[in-house]
Amino acid sequence: MKETRPSATAQRVAMRRASHQLLDDPKVFDDPIALRIIGKEDASALQTDPRQSEATPLSPYLRAFVAARSRYAEDELALGVRRGVRQYVILGAGLDTFAYRNPHPQGVLHVFEVDYPSTQTWKRACLDEVGIALPDDLTFGPVDFETQTLEEGLRAAGYDPGKSTFFSWLGVTEYLTTEAVMATLRFIASAPMGSGVVFDYMIAPSLLTPAQRSSFDTLERRVASAGEPWQAFFDPGLLTRDLQAMGFGYVKDKGPGEINARYFTNRKDGLRVGSLSHVMNAQV
Ligand SMILES: C[S@@+](CC[C@H](N)C(=O)[O-])C[C@H]1O[C@@H](n2cnc3c(N)ncnc32)[C@H](O)[C@@H]1O
Q1: Rounded to two decimals, what is the model's pTM?
Q2: Mean pLDDT over residues 117-142, rounded?
Q3: Is 175 in the pocket of ligand 1 (CB under 6 A)?
Q4: What does the alpha-carbon distance between residue 182 and residue 187 come to, in Å, rounded to a whole number?
Q5: What residue owns the CA closest to ligand 1's atom 2?
Q6: C-beta 116 within 6 A of ligand 1
């Protein structure tokens, strides 16, 4: 990340969520403001040609994964709220729209959006530009995961460490160093019982087949040229073991087989996720 520039990949991912609303039926992730938040110009271009940013053979897999990880995180958040979760921390929020369509009655769930400072400043300008109001139960917490601790950033934002909290961390871990990812997960593991995190991560390239490796190389070049190179990759078995050692009592890794079985069965369009990333659900 560059200090003065917002994340370019945050806009790309938001474009995929918006394309999903227009292209895929049934939708896996229904986000009524996904199109609005990308800005008037991009929204109007997408409405004219929803496939404009979905033109490569890998695009449907990436779009499906972006939709599925948000759906899974919000499904798990809803279960958490029923168990007593009262804070939702969206790590590396980008143009995530949950806070602006929060379905829970006011006062039940406080949302914290944590992001790289320049991305957060840009998001606030995007919200302002398209007239999306800031809800009372939202607080922004600017944090650079590489140079600050999440604990410091959240404390400054008014986070209550005594409350059961759900964290999501979508499309972010691959852009960080392994040390920064682990430090943040250790902090989450110290949250009160009932807390948890859903995050996605990239499979270590050494574990990929040659065909998967070729897709990986294509995507890796693309993000590096956007100035946001991938840095952290994981082995699902080792990551599960590390999370258990941190103190998470429930750790469930979801690969493409489980994600496709859960969200992409009986579709006429064949939409499904690919195999370069997994989603992890870890609960304290
Ligand atoms: C691909 S975007 C994903 C955004 C969002 N989670 C989503 O799914 O739409 C990556 C996000 O990670 C954030 N990020 C990358 N490096 C970061 C860092 N060192 N500290 C904090 N946030 C970071 C970017 O600002 C951006 O919001």
Answers
A1: 0.97
A2: 97
A3: yes
A4: 9
A5: 10
A6: yes
**Residue 139 β-bridge partners:** 112
Torsion of CA 139, 188, 186, 124, to 10 degrees: -20
Indicate whether 17 pLDDT > 80.
yes
Enclosing H/E stretch for 201? strand 196-202
- DSSP three-state, residue 53: coil
Query: Which residue in 249, 251, 267 sits closest to 201, CA to CA?
Result: 251
Could you give the CA distance from residue 164 to residue 193 in angstroms, rounded to a whole number? 7
* Joined tokens for residue 182: 């682990």
* Atom 17 of ligand 1, nearest CA residue: 116
Is the Cβ atom of 73 under 6 angstroms away from ligand 1? Answer: no
Q: What is the pLDDT of residues 142-196, one digit of tens each?
A: 999 999 999 999 999 999 999 999 999 999 999 999 999 999 999 999 999 999 9
Q: Which residue's alpha carbon is at the smallest distance from atom 13 of ligand 1?
A: 92
What is the distance between the alpha carbons of residues 223 and 239, in angstroms, rounded to a whole number? 24
Q: Given the DSSP bridges, would you call strands 165-169 and 138-142 parallel, antiparallel or unpaired?
A: unpaired
Cβ of 13 less than 6 Å from ligand 1:
yes
Q: How far is the CA of 93 from the centre of ligand 1 (A)?
A: 6
